[in-house]
Amino acid sequence: MNNCFQNFDSTLGGRQVLPATYNVSDFLKHRMEEVVMLTEAVNEKPFRGQGFQRLPKHLRRRQMSHYSKKLPRRLQGTQSNDEVPGPGKRPSRKFRRRPSNLQQEYCQRQTKNTWLETHIWHAKRFHMTSKWGYMIPEKCTTKNLRCLYRAICRNAILTDISYYNCIQLEGPEIKLLENLKKCTSPDCGLTFGAKIFLNGEKEGHLPFFYPDSYPQGIIGHLSFIWKPYNNLDSKRTLWIWVHPLIHFSVKKCLEKLFKLKNIEECDTSKDIDKNNTEIQTIKTENSSDLNKDMDLMNIKSKIKNVPFDKTPKFVSEDQLITMTLLKDTLNRFQVTGPVSQNVICKVFNLIEIQNNNNKSKEVIDTDNDYEPSKKKIKQDTDLKKTYEKKSKWWQEYYREETNKKSWDSQKKFFFTLNECTKPTDIPSGSVIPLVIGDPRLTMPERIQKKIEPLKKSPSILENYFESIFFNSPIWEPHIRDEVSMSKLSQVQINKARSKKIVPGGASNSVIPDTNLPRIPILLVQRPGTANIKNRPNGFGSGFDIICPAEYGAAILEAFSIKNVHIGGLREIELLNFECRNFNYYFQPDSEAGKITSDNLAQFYKNRYRNLPPNARTNFIKLRSPTPFHCAWDLLIRDWINLIDDKKIHNKFNYKVLRNKKHLRELREVVNKPQTFNFSTMKKLMDAAGENCLIPVVIEFVKKGKPTDLALICLPKKEDLLSGKEPEEKIHTDINKKKINENIRDEEQNHVQEPLPIKREENTRDTVEESSSKNSKKESNWVPNLSELNNIINFPSRTLMGYVTVGDFGLSSGNSSGLGYVSILSLFEIIKMVNECNSTSLKVLVKNPTQRNYKFAKLTVPEE
Description:
By secondary structure, the chain is an alpha+beta fold.
């Protein structure tokens, strides 16, 4: 019976029950309202305007046309229909020309010039330049140099010099020193065999020559570090750091010196392609965020380290000497400033090594108030998988008792380093090994305030420098490879930060202490300047940081967030100019110096050619013999001919005086010209040679600023006695008639010549005409050296030398410059000053584009 009276929606599973009775009047009332609404909608005319135009004008707002939620609720539906975008227009040409595979194009851009690990960070904030086969940050967008100078004097500044290449030599110590001795000289300072360098305590610097070619044939300056002694291994390891411009010359010289042969032709790109499967397994074990099906190109782009097995190696015939090119496998940074040691202690997080139960413990934390509780921390499963499969290199390395003792002494030193007031409290050139944690794990979220220098008394750190102190795992190639491969990705770091219990706490609390990554590094102390007027003792001192590959960007970001200025090439040049470091600049008698000079000369010539005729300086009128380069060979030739009264037109080989004993004697004479003795000066000149160039520093007495390639001239006695700065007369232009004739001929030829018929012939003619015009431009306003018999007498004052680098000195407060003069001209000025009873050597300096001579004080720099 109940089945006959079931509800209408029972088949649908509903539970609605119809009432037994229903009011007909209410039903008709609701239906009538619906009919009225339908008739109004049908009779209403279509509105073609925007939804907000339905409102009266006093209620309309401009934002309603862009943001529909500003409309009344009843009109929001109409506005949303109006906002439906139409067919999109064609993308711009920039996006149409984008490559199909951005990852491949990104890797291809790095083939022409090698990118540093910090390239992306620098490219967003710096002007980049291509030099020496690398893309190097040239200068930051800051236009003022004084803020950078203040950072050097008061705070700290960091620069990336990872483009310096490292060459590793392995073999018996006696055999290494026996051959390297041929390329050095004890007259220039300490060499590879000095006792202070052999035990690995300090880094050395020296000029490197071709074998048995001293005092000529210099390649360039380099630095070196010996691996500390190891009783278990009879072989010694030597790291040689060279500039990329002289890397090829040094490599070829060492190959010839030790008779080395390449084991196999090792192309980095091919080797990585062949071993993609091996690299993929390593990276997937240490990267939980990588998919197993990821394209191999994505994996290869993340690998910046070249494994030690794939680096180019050279072996001698007797299999005793091995040379390995560690190019682009180590990062090197320079930290300069009085608080550099305090910044290093704040950025780096020292991790204690314990062999008991294979555990390790953190001993330094940037947040002292943060105490992580292991019970409350939920470990991330991905981070666990990352470390379970990977072995720990420090567990094996620190099992040896000597390495454990070395770590204990390093830990004591690190605690004491933060108490130093300046970097010079540490012995100069000291090599300090450390093992730190990943700086990204303890990096603060916001930029910190500047670190003020301490005012405590300097600590005595010499007690910590023991022979066992200098052992470091960074010398082991397999450890460097493992450290680079086991680097945490940024995704894992972000996951660790998201798991923090206390906001702002250290991210390493999420990762187990036993699994914190260890990074071996070397700190190399740089002494800076000493005994320079208007500069504090130790100005420009700091530390060099050497770390394995893959951690360059992490260290740079950690320093930048600690409010440390980041610099480029401009800042390095500023520092070396203020410190008067001649070794940084390529010296004129080296191959690198000649290549750099030729490139600069070509740059100046092209810039001069692009100027309009009325803006070109007439160097013939101003008596500037070489406005685009320094003619050192002609300078030495003319001075020898002038003193010896010989007419020799051959070019003389010149050299820079590097003998420290001779430079010391010469400095004493220059500082006290009253003690001039002709016999002693004659002996010094005979010992040094007549073809020597002497490095000098000039400081302007009055106003003015020297530029690069400025002329250092010998004053006359009248100039010294009167004290007035002379002016170069505007000489008559010999080529004036020839210029007018050339212009007249060009105008006539242009009118008489018919129009060209063939386009190919026309293009060939225009190329030839442009090259001939460029040569004419130089010959019209630039002196022709082949026609000049003597360049030193071309200006009204005798030419002594050139200024290679000139600018306003921020430390001294006046204009100064670095340059070289002939040793014969230096003797002449000493004689003249002695006759005039002057207390200092004053010379005249003239810029190539000016007429005025400026008085400047000449000194020989300190060692």
